[in-house]
Specification:
The structure is a homotrimer. Chain A folds into four domains: about 300 residues, Alpha-Beta Barrel (TIM Barrel), CATH 3.20.20; about 60 residues, no CATH class; about 200 residues, Rossmann fold, CATH 3.40.50; about 55 residues, Golgi alpha-mannosidase II (Immunoglobulin-like, Sandwich). Chain A has 17 helices and 28 strands. In chain A, strands 12, 13, 14, 15, 16, 17, 18, 19, 20, 21 and 22 form an eleven-stranded mixed beta sheet that branches. A nine-stranded parallel beta sheet of chain A has the order 7-4-3-2-1-11-10-9-8, covered by helices on one side. Chain A has about 675 residues and is α/β, with parallel strands linked by helices. In chain A, about 30% of the residues lie in helices and about 20% in strands. At the A-C interface, helix 2 and helix 4 of A face strand 5, strand 6 and strand 16 of C.
């Protein structure tokens, strides 16, 4: 059993190796002024630690760790493997990735190692061994940070070789392989394992952007293989660290919206604590950021996670990065805590002097001054966190609704060559999350492998790929009293992207009690009308299924097109539970209406029944106390929901009763 | 003399090798329910037929052919050469094409062979020989289907070598070559045949998209060479088949709108019957589909053609593919028959289980059910065709108007670096076709090599490239009483894209009786006014020629810009005939007005004088009877044109007199 | 001291080698009809002059030079090195450039030599030596034209090698290099000079378009190195010519808006006379063309320049190239003269018969006729120039305002990864130039290395990169009484793109008397309000600096957002002079207001106080006379400014007093 974090970390990435050691003490003084108690170091130092294959130099890192240990900072120590030194590219070109066009890359950027390069694996393990051995006993290290923001794929011949073995293990015979991928199509039949070719823009790719592929089964398996290859490098690092340190939690930082090439559901199982880098843009709606936090909490089985990176002000890499308005920093950082974070960390603590991130915001900016608005707000967050740390650490959130997110499905949906080109898995899931969020319902975003039993309602939009046993699992869940909702384009293919033959939605047909005869494509400029029972009229977009009932009853019908009068939304009693099917991309008001109906019918808990558009309302609790987080995620004053306008509540940030309004970007943490 | 098809084929592509043989009988039962009498097989089976260089395996194909022969189906047998097996790429990388960026492709996709690879040519011929020899005597085979949807180009060193010999034959001396292409430009003079470089994105290409080229003469010749190289592979296959079978017609399927790299005018001469794959999108206007059918009829000298592929419902590869509305399938399939098709064939008869076309519509869908709307409509078409087959087979259409379409011109127009970037040859031809179509005038889309003598009017918009003898041919045609119409940007270059020096429009100057002094570019947001004789005002776009008359008389003048009052449209009496010149891109109403004038003046037959926008009106006739096809190509009720509201007509589909209206998508085939 | 041009040249590029010698006399007759007195020849003849490595053939060039010498034409003789022959690519592939993706190019296009290929340098020098030696004594040669329109970059291994030595010279130690570029970022530390990798799309590039780079310092140095490498090839050619001819001026033609990869500030120092190719599109506003002419005049220290290329009618390579309206040619050619040109030259004198420029306008068009509108206008310009040549030649313009343009800054601004993606250096400079132009203020566009002392006002918008001594130079200029204006995003980095630490705007902080605490990004759809003293309201876009005054006083304040009331524009008295700072992208009316204020305050001379939008008003003068150029740059009649409605003026083109109006596109050259 690994250690837990003892107190809330406040800090973030710090790269003192870019600066003269004389400046470090000044920096630390500033950190302390902001109640910063932690630094993440050594993320990109490989070239400095190892100037050539045979030389290691830990002198600078020793000084840094020594300095922060003496100052009693918590240290998150990175393994420095996320960017390879120039000499390594020169000496061992195979460490570089080959891209989808078959081009071997050269030195540059970061996150650039081929996960199947034996040279990389050897050099990486040697480095990690030296680091782990050297610093394992330092008690200030509260977490190991392996590599950084994993992502991307390699398409080199080493990967091709490894892929063959992976496939052989998965499919055993070429006959199975040819059948799984339907390789008699377009003369693709393989007669020898050596005929396997990795996805390549000059091979099976096509389409205007070359993003489509002839054999999606192969491409999806390749993504699985790459995600596993990369995870394997993570596990190799982890194993080395655990040789020297069995107590300190080990993690890597997840990122993205969500990161497509990396199957976080598998990766999460290997993390001692989930860590996430959060970079909403100026136009990201608050619910989308919340969706990612709820996914991180879901991936960690409800355990608190680390907000490993976030920006204290602006970023340099988004198209536009306006200033955060006064108070906005505090609201956005506390949003992570509200959804389950036990740390608040920034990229970065000190702004760099050169290279591409020099205009990325930092706690210490180029001016070095602390008499600035930005610094004052950073310090306020630090002091706030210090105040609440003891009460909030390790508290949890209970959600009775889960939203399924599956990486295999993600990949297959976006490779799907079908009647519309507008399939964006994340965006279509957002439809459903948003409706729940706006109704102040706590949601766990979970994987299809998670335990369903604690949830009153499982929402699985666009579940195109249904893995082997998943159909049965859903049937069992519903039969035992669960509620299950799915949509258009679900239940079509198995794990190899091969069609289920027994009529759409395949393995979900029995539980939903219906059969989809055909599916219309709706142009982006068009819609179909949908009426619910009481004649309320909504619209559907994207696609509309023409549904034939096999036991289900209609909840809504189409009200236009030649299929007017046929079912658009259905409900099917199945065992003790019930399955719902939504045949079109229902508009927001339609989904709101549908979920209000489900909340009432199923008895799903709501934290507030207030209609709002700018508040983020969540709770965290321990055995005894519940803490309600009410965040104003807007630049305008908002009323506090009526449920909380009550003097039985105390705001633990201010030790006062809540006011009836929240100032712009204000945060209340109410304890009853 | 080859056999003709005996009855109308109804069927299409079927890939039983993707399925267990036990399922085939069930499939056949369904085909028979839909009156399907034919299957196209073996299109993509090479990898299955030849698992490695030294092994052939015809066991599955034997069973398939045997099965369908016993069931008395007509078989269209493909040669399986359209997609190469994986082992061939591995063993002989030169079989793969090199793309315009100089990159050798790897295994994948289809339509991927280099036409100048000796390895490919050897292996292809061996395969075709085995297939032809084995099945030539089977009497159920009604057509041989060589390869599939030829297209694309290769830029490899084998092609470069072959190109040199091709050029040497064409130009004989380097002096001729340098002169033809104007190679003293930008230091391009060639002093040795080995200095010839094929077009390459890293060479002579430029422009934002690298689609422009320094020496268009070279690039156009390369397209000629590639089209001929590919045609040569077709001819090699054909010759082998004819060793064993001199009776059964041999063809390949044309496709595209139209397919740019493949000079169908040359290819058509080698086809025993023209075959076409038709895939209009949901937004393709009916006249554009008709344009392609009239081109196929024109390419086949007026003989009936095969509709080799079409979709029974949706396709997977268009951005959006809404459902066909009730009745729409029947109208779209009959449109091909109305314009001269003697077959109605689908891609495909059974929906595949995996890979990129698994959501392409099929007669047998994934559900396998026949109690569906889509299947009922397919069956209706089958029974309709069976009913009319005897009367319609081998009937022909007589057109007195021809529209010239030339591939050399197509290529040169789209390489033309001139005063506007908006030159889309096909789109600009559509202007003219549409005006004729809307006036219910039968049109043959023909090549510049066709016989002009039977036509009352030849329309040749944007005839930029005028081949050596074409000017004289046009003069002779007009002198003998023909009517000829051409437009802006015509008569500028010869076959090598070299300017005719004697003033625009070069070889057409004498027959049109005018000289174009300069040409204005009109911005897409702008237009020039044009007035015809009776003060009707129209607009011109794209370009406007400033015309100086040399014998011609103005039919219309510009009415804006500094050249207001100068001629915009002219007429020139020449011998017994007359030549017309249109100096700008006249708007639709202007072209309608112009063609109504020409129809009246020349006496061009119209099938109806009704104004309509949604009817497709054509005729097919034998020595005795004429069959009028009146198709409602819309989702609304349309009036039948007055000419056909007459009880002397019988609809041979229903054996009743026509009603005064056509229901949405309804089809009448009226016999007087 | 080199010769000066004796008379105004009127002529341009002529490629007689593309034509039979028999046609040359006819061409010359036409030239003379248009008062053309000069030809530029031999620009792209390398392949013709040298059919293989060991053979030279000057027979055709001899004939051409002989012909024009006998006809007493002035000859601009090019060195023919701008496009390499095909045989050279074949024999020495390293002469070809390697592109940013690492791809070696093949024969094609032009402007295609690697400047660090020893093969290229050897063959180029041999050719130039032969040409210079052969023709140096010809007295008709009035200028040598080296190469053509230099531009572009090479990324090959020869360049990589040369770059290492260049860096070693610049930075001396790896420590300095690592520090200058901040290479401890993302593990980029270099431990050996051989680890240097040139910029490569497969290396440090990223972003959606791969146009961003990890280490901008490296990429900017590479652009410097490439510009110098290319300049070195120019200097090699020049040195060879000067072996044989020390009198005739030597130049190359600048081009572009402005040409980004070529640091014309360095190049200008090596030119005996500045030459420029001017190709405004139909939508280029007149002030943008004027901006480039004023830059050419500025680069030449105020000396007259050559208008080396322009089009007599249309061009073939712009998206749309409408006809010039009657009179428009004359106005556009005279605009160059008005801003300082002493030649008017066209590309080209005769339209080519084939290849990509065959539809580029020319004096002799494909028809060969002179009874055309276009030819008449060309001839008019010729006769006009002949009339004024003696008076205008060698006259100069005096500007009291300079606008700084720096190539290092250009590069760094466009690599800047910051809070907005909308940084277009040229466009943002245009804001300022336009305000001055509309107020009829003469402006020199000069480099940061120019002498500032003669100017009353130096305008330096977006001076992001401030080279080592530039801050001090500006301080000295202001201290001695100069006025200096700069803007948002200035003073941030040094020459290696490394941040100045002492608070923005770094080395400009003292002279501007302020500190920029933070900078907001303003979305393209948004703006911030700005009020000037008298409550006039303007808007700001792009970014807005939050300014803290350190001595400066506010001239304008923000009037919206949370920083409303803080300074937006400031003024700081410094020594005898004054520095202005503009914190946001002020709208056009705001800049007009600001410059009217500065003109009044500083006493900057205006040629007219008339508000106009379509007149270009400039002056040229010698010791005695001043010539006012009043050009109507529009298709409408315009009033002559009141200042010039005075009978003391004579129009030297017509020898009459000016009228009160200017006809469309009319030109007045008024002498008092």
């Amino acid at each position: 059993m690994k250690n837990k974090l003892a107190t809330m970390l406040y800090g973030g990435d710090y790269n003192p190796e870019q600066w003269a050691p004389e400046t470090w003490d000044d920096d630390i003084e500033i950190f302390e002024e902001a109640a910063i108690n932690s630094v993440t170091i050594n993320v990109f130092s490989w070239a400095l630690l190892q100037p050539n294959e045979y030389t290691y130099d830990f002198s600078t890192l020793d000084k840094i760790i020594d300095k922060f240990s003496k100052k009693d900072f918590k240290i998150v120590l990175a393994t420095a493997t996320a960017a390879l030194p120039a000499w390594m590219f020169k000496k061992y070109p195979d460490v570089a990735r080959v891209d989808y066009q078959g081009r071997r890359h050269v030195f540059g950027q970061r996150h650039n190692a081929c996960p199947n390069s034996l040279d990389y694996l050897r050099l990486m393990q040697q480095l990690v061994d030296k680091i782990a051995k050297r610093y394992a006993t330092n008690e200030h290290i509260v977490a190991w940070h392996i590599n950084n923001e994993y992502g991307g794929n390699c398409y080199c011949s080493n990967c091709q070789n490894a892929f063959k073995f992976w496939l052989k293990e998965r499919y055993r015979t070429l006959e199975n392989l040819n059948s799984a991928w339907n390789m008699n199509f377009w003369s693709h039949t393989i007669h020898d394992w050596n005929e396997i070719v990795v996805p390549n823009e000059l091979g099976d790719a096509f389409g205007a952007e070359n993003t489509e592929t002839t054999v999606a089964g192969l491409s999806i398996d390749y993504l699985r293989f790459q995600s596993e290859s990369m995870l394997n490098t993570f596990k190799l690092e982890k194993k080395i660290i655990e040789k020297y340190d069995q107590k300190t939690p080990i993690t890597t930082n997840f990122h993205g919206l969500p990161n497509k090439p990396t199957d976080y559901a598998s990766w999460a199982k290997e993390q001692d604590i989930i860590a996430y880098d959060s970079y909403p843009t100026f136009e990201t709606p608050a619910f989308e950021t919340a969706f990612m936090y709820d996914m991180m909490r879901g991936l960690g089985n409800g355990n608190p996670f680390m907000l490993m990176e976030s920006t204290p002000s602006q970023v340099n890499w988004q198209p536009y990065s306006p200033l955060k308005r006064p108070g906005q920093l505090r609201a956005t950082e506390f949003q992570a805590v509200a959804h389950g974070a036990d740390t608040v960390q920034y990229f970065q603590l000190k702004q760099s002097l050169g290279a591409t991130e020099k205009f990325h915001g930092a706690v210490i900016s180029h001016s070095g001054r602390t008499d600035t608005r930005a610094f004052r707000e950073v310090a306020q967050v630090g002091h706030d966190l210090k105040k609440i740390s003891n009460q909030i650490m390790h508290t949890r959130t209970t959600a009775k609704v889960a939203l399924l997110f599956d990486w295999g499905n993600y990949w297959s949906v976006e490779y799907m060559a079908t009647i519309t080109q507008d399939l964006n898995y994340t965006k279509l899931l957002h439809d459903y999350y948003k409706a729940l969020y706006n109704n102040n319902v706590a949601v766990d975003v979970i994987s299809v492998d998670s335990d369903f039993s604690e949830y009153d309602l499982i929402v699985a939009p666009l579940l195109y790929m249904v893995k082997d046993n998943l159909g049965k699992k859903i049937e069992a869940y519903v039969a035992e009293g669960g509620n299950f909702l799915t949509t258009y384009l679900s239940g079509l293919v198995n794990e190899s992207d091969k069609i289920y033959l027994d009529g759409y939605p395949g393995p979900l047909r029995k539980v939903t009690g219906l059969w989809v005869e055909e599916t219309d494509a709706i142009l982006p400029t068009n819609h179909v009308n949908v009426t619910l029972k009481d004649d309320k009229m909504f619209t559907g977009q994207l696609v509309s299924d023409i549904i034939r009932l096999e036991g289900a009853e209609p909840l809504a019908k189409y009200a236009s097109e030649f299929y007017a009068g046929t079912p658009a939304i259905t409900k099917n009693d199945f065992g003790e539970g019930c399955a719902y099917y939504v045949g079109t991309r229902l508009d927001d008001s339609g989904l709101d209406y549908l979920f209000k109906f489900l909340i009432a019918k199923i008895g799903i808990p709501q934290l507030s029944t207030n209609e709002h558009t700018s508040l983020d309302i969540t709770e965290r609790h321990n055995g005894k106390d519940t803490f309600f987080f009410i965040l104003n995620m807007s630049n305008e004053v908002q009323s506090l929901p009526l449920e909380f306008q009550d003097d039985q509540f105390i705001d633990i940030l201010t030790d006062t009763h809540p006011k009836n309004v929240l100032e712009p970007w204000n945060v209340n943490i109410l304890k009853r």
